[in-house]
Design brief:
Layout lengths: L4 H17 L8 H27 L5 H23 L5 H31 L3 H28 L4 H23 L11 H23 L6 H21 L1
Helix pairs in contact: 1-5, 1-6, 2-5, 2-7, 2-8, 3-4, 3-7, 4-5, 4-6, 4-7, 5-6
Length: 240
Amino acid sequence: MKDNFLLYCVLILAAGLFGGILPFIRKWSDELLHLFISFGAGIFIGTVFLHLLPEALSHNNHNISAIFILIGFMLIFFIERFLIIRGDGGYDHSHLVISIAAMVGLSVHSLIEGLGLAVGSEYEDIGSLIFFSIIAHKSTAAFSLASLFLLAKMKLKKRLLLIVLFSIMTPLSAIIFSNLFTSIDHDSLSPFLGLTTGTFLYVSVGELLPEVFHTKSHKWAKLLLLFFGILIMSVIKHGH
């Protein structure tokens, strides 16, 4: 794994940039963007309930993990409802709030992914598994995030800057952490994993799901894409 570590970092960066820039290369309708987001929501929900929650609660100090899951959940709630919202900004402002909340949750998750990749670089048997787990949803996560930026009608330069920032977080985190340690006790990571799970849970269930189904158009197609996203994460879990 160590021989491929930098290659994995580059591929993860490329996957994020590809998924994040794709929504900007042509004009997408509101309905189509919501269909993409419904698929992304399925990816996120599957990640939370099939990967993050079981892993966070499997540690010996699972009670601490549960507390940090709650802290992460309430942290994003507080940021969204008390720090970001400034009055009733209308439909576009609502999308802006959701996109920023999603950016915060996914950024924390990306930093923890980088930590996991750094840990995996020390073990040949799990390193490639961690890499494929990250690469499997990185493009979709970036695409969904960029779609939210479009719905919020952000300026192009700001959208591109945020996508580049999001894409670089995992590889940069991996490189930094890989230089800080050669091995680590996974139980000591449970607070960080719990915090990640809580933020991801709020963004997935508290924001993306309501965003997808706040209109009745194409509701069955949205539901199908939602389940398809969850199914993909289920397949990845069995692959693990």
